[in-house]
């Protein structure tokens, strides 16, 4: 999860987020090189007293600074398009979960099970246990198995919401009357936090998302226990 004074992105918890982090570093390095070159040219132009007509009027230079930006854009566009297609790729998910946004909580329904669904409310500050995070903890976590493709169906019951977990590289709008979907694979066990990222009313800041990744056997035990309780 994020921490105070953090400059970079959160550590990746899914292969997709790892790809996004690599692309971020790739694009940032290109921006750094361009900025360095431009600053160097500005410094030389301002500080030098020498001029040359081949510099002031050169077909070669004009050709280079026309073609070079196009090459740079291609180097950025191709990896970006690859990740966009990866984000839309959904192949044989092992589990399907439906997330429904309300004002101001989330409901989860495990569609592969007959009676497995629950609401997820934020835990009030006065009810937090030691070690829990204010404004991020929920009374019911969305539990998913590790290393298994999970399809998430997202919609809303009232107004626009957005289901967002930065560590997974997932941000999908929840639109009333429309069903959006995404997929992710949990690469490691852990608890990952997110929040609604679409302004949805007075308590927009108080509908967190908590995803807990566990081994498959633990997930089966959890699902059996939840079904028995309901």
Describe this structure in words.
With 230 residues, this protein is α+β, with helices and mostly antiparallel strands. Helix content is 35%, strand content 26%. Helix 1 (15-47) runs antiparallel to helix 3. It is built from four helices and ten strands; from the N terminus they run αααββββββββββα. It is elongated. The chain has two domains: 15-47 and 58-88, no CATH class; 95-229, Cupredoxins -  blue copper proteins (Immunoglobulin-like), CATH 2.60.40. The strands form three sheets. A five-stranded mixed sheet has the order 3-2-1-5-8, with no helix packed on it.
Concise synopsis of the structure shown:
The chain has 4 helices and 10 strands, in the order αααββββββββββα. It has helices at residues 15-47, 53-56, 59-88, 216-229, and strands at 95-102, 105-110, 117-120, 142-145, 149-156, 161-165, 170-174, 180-185, 190-195, 208-214.
Key attributes of the depicted protein:
2 domains; alpha+beta; three-stranded mixed β-sheet; 230 residues; Immunoglobulin-like; five-stranded mixed β-sheet
Order of secondary-structure elements: HHHEEEEEEEEEEH
Helix content: 25-40%
Number of domains: 2
Uncertain stretches of 5 or more adjacent residues: none
- Strand order across the largest sheet: 3-2-1-5-8
CATH architecture of the largest domain: Sandwich
Question: How does the helix and strand content classify structurally?
Answer: alpha+beta
Main location: mitochondrion
Protein name: Cytochrome c oxidase subunit 2
Cofactor: Cu cation
Pfam families: COX2, COX2_TM
């Amino acid at each position: 999860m994020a921490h105070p004074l953090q400059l970079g992105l959160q550590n990746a918890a899914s292969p997709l987020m790892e790809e996004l982090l690599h692309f971020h570093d790739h694009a940032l390095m290109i921006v750094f090189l361009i900025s360095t070159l431009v600053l160097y040219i500005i410094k030389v132009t301002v500080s030098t007293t020498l001029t040359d007509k081949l510099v002031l009027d050169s077909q070669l230079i004009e050709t280079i600074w026309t073609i070079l930006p196009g090459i740079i854009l291609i180097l950025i566009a191709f990896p970006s398009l690859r990740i966009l297609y990866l984000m839309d790729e959904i192949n044989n998910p092992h589990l399907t979960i439906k997330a429904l946004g309300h004002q101001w909580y989330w409901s989860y329904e495990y569609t592969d099970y007959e009676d497995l669904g629950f609401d997820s409310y934020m835990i009030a500050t006065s009810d937090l246990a030691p070690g829990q995070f204010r404004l991020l903890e929920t009374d019911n976590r969305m539990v998913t198995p590790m290393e298994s493709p999970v399809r998430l169906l997202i919609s809303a019951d009232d107004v626009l919401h957005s289901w967002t977990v930065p560590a997974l590289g997932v941000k999908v709008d929840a639109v009333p009357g429309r069903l959006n979907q995404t997929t992710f694979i949990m690469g490691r066990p852990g608890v990952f936090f997110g929040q609604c990222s679409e302004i949805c009313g007075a308590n927009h800041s108080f509908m967190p998302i908590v995803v807990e990744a566990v081994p498959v056997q633990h997930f089966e035990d959890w699902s059996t226990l939840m079904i028995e309780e309901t």
